[in-house]
Each structure stands twice: as structure tokens, then as C-alpha cells.
Hints:
The chain is α/β, with parallel strands linked by helices. About 35% of the residues lie in helices and about 15% in strands. It contains nine helices and seven strands; from the N terminus they run βαβααβααβαβββααα. β4, α6 and β5 form a beta-alpha-beta unit. The two termini are about 25 Å apart. The site of one iron/sulfur cluster (SF4) has 10 residues, from α7.
Amino acid sequence: MIATEAKDFEDILKALSEADSIYIVGCGDCAAVLQTGGEFEIAEMKDRLEQVGKTVTGTVVPEVTCQVLDVKRLLRHDREAVEKADAILVLACGAGIQAVADVVENRPVIAGLDSLFSANKFRAGQFYEWCSACGECIVDQYGGICPITRCPKGQLNGPCGGTNQGKCEVDPEKDCVWTLIYRRAGQLGVKDVVDEHLADAKDYTKSTRPRQRVFEPRRT
Ligand code: SF4
Ligand code: SF4
């Protein structure tokens, strides 16, 4: 899922300075789990906007806001409320915000959240970046741990000179990713394989943006 965090309310108000009436869109998927754009946060945002004198013409929390056709259907259904609004405020990741902008062509669309990273969730409130979507997954060469993402320097051939007692020099609170990789290789009995491994040059053309994946879906 995509990790997001709320923008400062004062910054949102600044972006909405020309708008007296606002329609709010959330996201029932990632932003709901991250507690940034689910039903609760949308109701809270509505209250806060009303407290500073704005009119909220309507709200909606699509199941998955990056699904453009679903968003189109929902906003068409609520057309009257959307058209009464001077601006649309979206509490979703950048993909969701752009889905709304694609659908609502004649109103400014304002971002209420910042998008951070593709997240692995552990417990509630604990989200970590473990994958950078590089387009050429090599985690099987590292015991299932990604050095591209989980090392600040993306060290593919062993730790940098700054590793200290198993910790990372960039953030001493964290284990060096190579501590994790060696520990895992030990568990798997493949330490030698990791020691002898020399990574091929990474093909970063595979992560040239913007990327797309377009295919003929299987009929079910
Ligand atoms: S190698 Fe790392 S960044 Fe690339 S796809 Fe695999 S987990 Fe993601
Ligand atoms: S100490 Fe380890 S995790 Fe930190 S930058 Fe160096 S190699 Fe990467």
C-alpha cells in the first residue's frame, strides 16, 4: 500500500484560499488504513473546514480512489454536490488525487496528503518502506531482503565502511541491512553464497518514469 501523511491544515487552507465551498474525497483503501483519508479523517476535515467558515458541499470515500472509472461513477452520482463546490480536496495518495483531477476537469483539485512510499504494514501504525519498485527484483539474491531500499546507499556488494557493530551509520537506531542479510543467509545456510555474490550492474532503465503496464486482461 501507499503510505501517506496529512499536510499541515494551515497549508491546506492556503491552497483553498480562493474556495468558499469544498467537496472532499477520501480513499477507503490505503489512506483509510494509514488513518489519513478514511471515513473518520474525512468527517474530521469537514468539521475543521466548517469551523473556519467554509461550506462542505459533500464528501465521498471511494473504495479505491486510484481506480479512475469507479471514482468517475461516484462523482457523477454526486454531481450536484460536486458542482456546488469551488474546489475538490482529496485525502488520498498522489494516484488518487490525479484520478480525481482526471475526472473533475472544471474545478481545482487540492492535495490534502503527501505521498511517502510503498509500505509494508506490521501492526497498526507501523509502516515500513521495503521495496522501491525498481522493475527488476533481486531480493532472492539477498535472502529475501532488499538492499536497494533498506540501505540508504543501496549497497549491493556488502556493507559500506560506515557500518558499526551491526548498525547503520546513517541511522544508528537501525540495523545495517547487511547485518540482516548475513543473519538471514546464516539461517538459510548460504553465507558463502552471499560472500561470493557479485551483483550485476542494475538496469535502472527499467525504472524510467512514467512507467505503465498495459495488457489484455484474462476473461474470467
Ligand atoms: S529489488 Fe528491491 S526495490 Fe527492486 S523490486 Fe525487488 S524489493 Fe523492490
Ligand atoms: S551502514 Fe549498512 S545500511 Fe547503512 S549505509 Fe552502510 S551499508 Fe547501508
